Amino acid sequence: MGGKLTRNIRATCLIVSANQVVTPYPVYPIGAAYVVGALRRSGHRVYHFDLLADGGLNGLMEFLHGKKYDFVGVSIRNLDTVDSADPREYLQDILKTVQGIRKQLDTILVLGGPAFSIMPEKLLTFLQADYGVVGEGEIIVPWLATELAAGRRPKEKIFVASPREGEWYPSDLSTSTVRYYTEHGGMLNVQTKRGCPYGCSYCSYPMIEGKTLRYRDPEDVAEEVIHLQRESGARYLFFTDSFFNDSEKRFLQVAEALIRRENRLPWCAFFRPQGLERDDLRLLKRAGLAAMELGTDAATDLTLAGIGKNFSFEDVLQVHRRVVAEKIPCAHFIMFGCPGEDERTMKEGLANIEKLEKSVVFAFIGIRILPGTGIFDRAVSDGIITGDEPLLTPEYYYSPGIDRERMEEMILDSFGNRMDRIYPCHEFEERIAMLHDMGHTGPLWDLLLTKGRR
User: Fold this and answer.
1) Residue spans per domain, the chain
2) Overall pTM > 0.90
3) Which DSSP symbol is given to 418?
4) Which of 138, 347, 400, 452 is the most exposed, having the fewest neighbouring CB atoms within 10 Å of its CB?
5) What is Dmax (Cα atoms) for the chain?
6) Ramachandran bin of 32, using left for φ above 0, alpha for ψ from -120 to 50, beta for the remaining angles
7) β partners of residue 293
8) Distance CA 345, CA 9 (A)
9) What is the separation, in whole angstroms, between the first and last Cα of the chain?
10) Tens-digit pLDDT profile for residues 186-207
């Protein structure tokens, strides 16, 4: 990046959260909130428009009428559902949003968000934007705002953020935006760290946040949690880390900080099913842990290895038994059709799932192929794709060792009429949305553990 920040140059800018997905529940746009906060701290005039909270595309068109901005940033959260049983695409909605902005305004368009970071060049071209930011925007976007307000147009079109240790900016969105999420599921999001050091072959987190873990001050995390409860009306929290339980066990410092602040807000997080002891779980419960989502991902040692996991199914079982012993509701998320999958591993995996008693299991078939991932390379070598596909629309990896239809048949036969075994998952998501509309809070799959059969 060229040029220096000139503090007396203030841009007038708009950040648009383009996500309109409401299943299984509306997700608070925490990435946009961080960028908005960083822009305000840098002295820029910044406005935020959330398509979910503020009336959709029609609401945006009305909002833009008669306005002027030095640039409009569009945050893109998802490309599609990444679920082969419900392969809905979102890019056409994003395109309509961008075209609507272009129709209303003569301005510079900047793209960002996790989906943009996965395939920036293709999305910049597809959406015909001027600039794009890969990764964290808190440093780059304020700098770019200053450049544009000063009339300087950088020659570079895509800027890649360099993750920096210890730099955290407060999130900042309007009270009305926050209220929408507290009234539709009651959940808000908090982040305790960024990055992922693991090499799971399907995962895009290392591309989005980097491969090095960068931790936030636990006291700052606890302060934000208390603020969200007291000032924003949060009734439930989800920690949005790629995984909560880091191997250095700094997550326990977050729990201790929450206990010191006498947190009473229930929360959930995504956990790696490895290395969690019962003492850890007891501490987390005291800090407010109400439910755990476990990234088990595959159901046999062979298929776990096929997607780059460095734990075994026995590791999963050990953690699972400790979680159940501590009476913490938990859900496992498992993909079938991973590299190495065949009828034998299907039978073994379904038998292993039977051992996950007193838990909810969400099953998926196939893996969304994303560029830059190990599963992309495996899909090319297995002849599933050529490697030239744009992948803007979903393509899935299925093991050549077994037909997709046979996998589905085996899963449905095994799961039978159990309420705590979910396939296809999108059918359950519709029920969650209905329960949230009725005023219930949280992820709600834990309710299945108190029910009987369908």
Assistant:
1) 12-160, 185-450
2) yes
3) B
4) 452
5) 67
6) alpha
7) 270, 331
8) 61
9) 58
10) 889 999 999 999 999 999 988 8
